[in-house]
Input
Amino acid sequence: MSNIALVSVLCKDNPGLIAAIAGRLYDIGANLGDTTFAVLGGAAELNAVCELPQDVTLASVEKDLNRLKELAGAKISVTPFAYEPTHAEQAHITHRIEITGRDSPGLVARLSEVFVQFGANIVRLNSEHLPGSGETHYMLRMAVFIPKEKASTCLATVANTAAQIALTCRWEET
Output
């Protein structure tokens, strides 16, 4: 039986975080699966699905990570991962989409609703406010799965929805 855990870290952003966390997990024999890392404002967040050696407990992993000087004051959580450790077809990225323009409330909601109509799945999403010339400039990046037979219609609808709220949209097939 495998020992699969979700390791989650939220801390102040500093250089070297990924190296410190991945290095410590390697040292205890963990095998990293799907992993995400993001800077969120002045914080950083890492989530990783890890296969742990059978003799390594969740509590010991959390304790080891708490000892890292790079994670002083971090919120660290190591919990059982009750889902499949590898993702299904609808999590394979078929397209990367970038939408930019002036920020407005509801932007992410309106754009993400489009994908539901086409049986598409947002696999990764990143949004950020960009420094600019007085008005708030916004960038939304999505990595998505779109069923092949619905891709052109879905992408056209996303672009039209973006244009309706004065945003530009571009995409690439992966």
About this structure: Residues 151-164 form the longest helix (14 residues). The chain has four helices and eight strands.
